[in-house]
Design brief:
Shape: elongated
Strand order of the largest sheet: 7-8-10-13-9-4-17
Radius of gyration: 37 Å
Number of strands: 19
Distance between the termini: 41 Å
Helix content: 40-55%
Length: 762
Amino acid sequence: MAPDVPGAVRRVAFVMLALCAVAVEIAAVDVRPVWESVGLAFIWIGAAALVAWRVPIPANPRAKPPVWVSLVLLPLAAGPFAIPTYPLELQMVLGLRNVGLGLAACAGWVLCLRLACVSSLFLILFAAAMTDHPAVLVLLGLYTAAGGLWLTLAYWTGLRAVLATSEREVQVEVRGGRVRPPWVAVLAVLVVVGCTLGVVALGPKWVVGTLGELMPTSGGTGNTDPFARYGVGDGPEEVRGDNAKAAGMVETDKMIEDNKNSLIDAVNDMYGPPHKPPKEQERMVAAGKADVIQNHGKLPENRSASRDFDTGRKGPKNPKTPGSGLARGLFEIEGRTPLHVRRVAYETYDATAHRWREGRKPQSRYLEADGGDWMRLSNLREPGPSWYANDDAHKLKAATLRTNLLPAPPMLTRVRINKVDKPDYYDWDFEGVLVLAGRRTTPPGVIVHTESRTVRPERLSADAFAPALSAPLLADVPAALREPLARTANEWAGHLPRGPEQVFAVVNRLRAEYALDAGSVAPLDHPHPVLWFLLESRRGPDYLFATSAALLLRALDYPTRTCLGYYAAPSAYDPENGHTPVKERDLHVWPEVQLRDGHWLVLEPTPGYDVLPPKLPLWERVRAALAAAWDRVRRNPVPWALALAVLACAVALRRTLRDALAVARWRWLPAAAWQEQVRRAARIVERRAGRAGAPRPAGRTVAAWARSALPACDARERFARLAERAAYSPASAEPDDARAVCLEALRAFSVRALSSAPKEPT
């Protein structure tokens, strides 16, 4: 008689169908509360559980299920059709879900078990394709784990012998007294290891791209090949040709003009329009600058004062959702992130108008040819004792920029554009803000190669920062704000020595005690938004964080400024093409402090934003990781000591633990055939004898070895006869005492007993 389907396999199959039932119910109406969908699904799961409780275990699992099984499945399948609000196709899927639950309830028959597993796979794929609800993704992960467990149990219990189309014993092929080596398995392992090493050597991105090119795409499947060229499924990655507006990282010589300018619109969309000042105040502002920022899109030239930034705003009317913005972005970055890309630099804060005024334009280009289309910045002074790590390289490609900005990271040292090999082609809008000279827009498709420095904060010293006397304008605090800001700055950092301790104390205080809230803006009648933020609300948008940090550092005599630009977050990284797109919604405001060598150090007082970490060599990264691990151990000595003690015990007792696990598997996960169960017990005894110094020689049968190597006792002879019968007798019914004999042998022939007992001569 064929053995029945093990209960563990049946139960795991039912769990898989239960997970699918919940996932399908959530996908059917994903706007419904999750708990309601789970409750509806559990009604059908409970009904199937009652059926499973009443269905008997068949004597022959390979037999055809009886007719009454169909009568059980019909009511379950017809249940969803009683819900008239669901479309017909959804009712059919829900009916299939119930049929799958019924099949899982009747999984004692092999046919029902097979159909239940197949239907579960279809149902989970349907749910994952119908919705991106987070609960469905969680259920998909649980289903994957349950499916892996089901396959493992099926293998461990020898279920493949039951599910095979013909019943046969799996014999160990012997040639000349030796077991035939598993050449197929060895070859498979070598192929997997070789492929893994090849992927590591060539790079995953190159391998995926090369294999993807072998698959033809017609554009009619609804999917997009990122490197497709023609047809409905054109991909977004650029290849050489006329499609210059694609955003892939391929050099292009196309020059397309676009006179639109959306910077001011983007600022107002994200932060809200500025407060309109009273007429008396408006007349006090020279050249009418306080009002010009509201002239959406009417920017006369790049150097227009309309880019002044107002810190008194009404707040965004409709805050943009994370999914809004352009499809691919204004530009894309290939390289490490987070990264700040400046657009406008502000140097003077007007406390009367509540706004930052644009910085000055450098008087010289400060660029010189460096060979191979590279341009090197020539205005930077030598830093002396270096506080820099390794230089970093990035590639930034313009896509839909509507200004002549050349996107570049902070602390730029070299820049290159293909075939743009003269300094006259470049210009500075502000210090550190590079633009194309004589152009109104940066052509789509232009790739900017950059090299920039990265700072090691722990190496900064007091003389790393520029003195306030070198740039009095950058250390100026409006008279109306000077006293409260100086008092706050001294309270936060006045007791610390000048240098990085003071700078980072101000930054860390803002990050720790203030909350980012884009919708929190100063009242219309408040005279100073920055004081309202610092002393009253303690929450606000990023431009109030940046303004507060800059003015507080100025009160401590550090030359600072604020910058408006774009923030490339690591979370925006696209693993498909290896780029980080930057969109209009990534506008950000941050402060910077000037270093002695002319570079500007980016600071991030806004919670949730970070600065690019230093680029360290491999050995320093390893050392830093070890230091961090040791610091964690030092701060939590007791748990780590216990963990190390447990690990040491596990290593010392690894053979004992392996033996205990093997015995537990033998007892609780028996093989489908009794012969295999006896062979498992024999292998456990063989390993014990090998540890005791009496391994089984090659070519000697288990029975002959047991009679000569194991201690003399009644259990030895019974175990030897049983092993001989399991190895050579034809398929037959299991002996009544097989399990008892094996248990007696496992108990009698321990490592200690085998080591201490005298061995009989061969």
